[in-house]
Amino acid sequence: xxxxxxxxxxxxxxxxxxxxxxxxxxxxxxxxxxxxxxxxxxxxxxxxxxxxxxxxxxxxxxxxxxxxxxxxxxxxxxxxxxxxxxxxxxxxxxxxxxxxxxxxxxxxxxxxxxxxxxxxxxxxxxxxxxxxxxxxxxxxxxxxxxxxxxxxxxxxxxxxxxxxxxxxxxxxxxxxxxxxxxxxxxxxxxxxxxxxxxxxxxxxxxxxxxxxxxxxxxxxxxxxxxxxxxxxxxxxxxxxxxxxxxxxxxxxxxxxxxxxxxxxxxxxxxxxxxxxxxxxxxxxxxxxxxxxxxxxxxxxxxxxxxxxxxxxxxxxxxxxxxxxxxxxxxxxxxxxxxxxxxxxxxxxxxxxxxxxxxxxxxxxxxxxxxxxxxxxxxxxxxxxxxxxxxxxxxxxxxxxxxxxxxxxxxxxxxxxxxxxxxxxxxxxxxxxxxxxxxxxxxxxxxxxxxxxxxxxxxxxxxxxxxxxxxxxxxxxxxxxxxxxxxxxxxxxxxxxxxxxxxxxxxxxxxxxxxxxxxxxxxxxxxxxxxxxxxxxxxxxxxxxxxxxxxxxxxxxxxxx
Length: 560
Description:
By secondary structure, the chain is α/β, with parallel strands linked by helices. It has helices at residues 35-45, 73-81, 113-123, 138-148, 150-182, 184-201, 207-219, 221-236, 241-255, 261-289, 294-314, 318-336, 338-383, 425-428, 431-449, 465-479, 491-494, 521-533, 539-559; strands spanning 2-10, 13-19, 24-28, 62-69, 90-97, 102-106, 109-111, 124-127, 391-403, 406-415, 423-424, 453-457, 483-487, 499-508, 511-518.
C-alpha cells in the first residue's frame, strides 16, 4: 500500500508530507485548492508525463516521492524479476524535475520512466478524472476483458503477438516481392553485372593494406634511395664513420698493453666497428637490389584504384565487398527462380495464417468463457451501485483483419431499464452512469489482480442522493480489502473515510500555497458540514453532518 507522499515545489504546493492509512482515504476541499495536484504528483512519481507549468515559479526544482509498503509474496516475486528489492519491506519511488530534465529513482537507483510505470502497475491503479469516458471506445472493452482473464490469457496473448508478428513480416515480404517482380529482368541484369564486377576483381582479405604499403614505397622510391645513399656515404666510404672508428680502434689497440682499463674500451669499440661494418654490407645490398620499376608501379596503382573503387561502392572494406557479393548472389538466385520463391512464400504465408488462426481461436474461446463471468460480476456490482434492474453482456464480433489481439472485437452492451433492449454503452449511459460502471469494473479487476492501492479522482461525477450513498458504501466495502485514495465532492463518500484529508489554499507573503492536513473526528464533521451547506453552515447543517458521520459508522460496523 501507499504509505507516504512527499511533494515539494509543485504548482501550488510548496511542500507537503502525507501519511496515508489503510482502507478509505478521502481528499476533499474547495474547488481550486489543488486536490488534483496531489493525484497529478503521484502520477509524476510513477513515470507519467510532466505537464508544462507544474514546476513552482521561482524554484529550481520540484520533487515527488512515494513510499510503498510491500507484503504480498506475488508482488515481491514480480518486483524481484525486475531487479527491484524492497528495503525494510518498502519501495521508494521519486521523481526530481527541473526546467531542463527530470530524474526518476527507485530505492535511490536511477531508472527510466518506462521502468517506473512497469513497477507502478504492480503497486497502484489510478482512475483519472475522465477515465470513465474511455468506456465509450470499444477497444477499451477488449482491453478490460483481457485484463480480467489475464491469468489464462497472458501466455496465449504473447504467443498470439509473436505469431501475428511473423505473419505480418511474411505479408510485408510478399508485398515487397510482388513489387520486385515488376522490374525483375532489369534488376537481374544489374545484379549480374555487379556480381561479375566483384568476381573478376578476385579480391583477397588484407590485400588492400599490402597494396597501400607497396604503393607508398614505390611512390617514395626516389626519396628512399637518396636517403639510403647518403647514409651509406656517411658510414661506409673513405673518411666516413666506419673509417674513423677503424682508426680509433687501431690507436687504442697500440697502447692497450700499457693499461688494462683500455682493453675493455677496445672491446666495446671493436663491437661497434663490427656492427657498423655489418650495417654497411646490408645497406650496400639494399641499394644494389632496389630498383624502381615503372611498370610494377603502374600495376600496383591500377590494382589499388580498382580495390578502392569496389570498397567505395560496396561498403568501405574488402570484407564488406565480399559480403555484398554473397547477398547479391542470393538475391539474384531468388529473382532468377522468382516463381519458385513466390510459391514457397505463399506456402509459408498459408502456414503462418493457419498458426495465427489456431491461436486466435484458442484466445477467443478463453475470452468468451471469461466474458460470461465478467458480465455476471459487473451486473452484481452495478446492483450495489443503485442500478435497480440492469442487464449487461459482452458482445463479440469477428474483425475484418488479424491483429496482435487476434480476430476478436468486443463491445459492452447494457440495458438499465426493464424491457429495454441491450445497447452500446455510449447510446445508453450518462456521465454519472459511466463513472459507476467504471467503478464496478475497477472493483472487479482489483479483486482479480491483487493491486493493493486504488486511486479515484472524482469518481462521483454526475451522481447524488441515494446513488451517492450506494457508491459510498461500495467504496467502503472495497476499502476493506484494498487501500483506496479518493478525491470527492460528495459528503456521502467523504463520511465513509477511514482517514480524511482536507486540502486548503492560503495566501502567504502574496504567494498562493496549497496545504494538506489530516482531519480529526470533529474536523471531519465540520468539513462534511461545509460540503453539505456551502457558504452558510447552520446548526441544522452540522446536525446533518453529524448524522451522516454516524450513519457511516453504522455501515462500517455492519460491513466489518
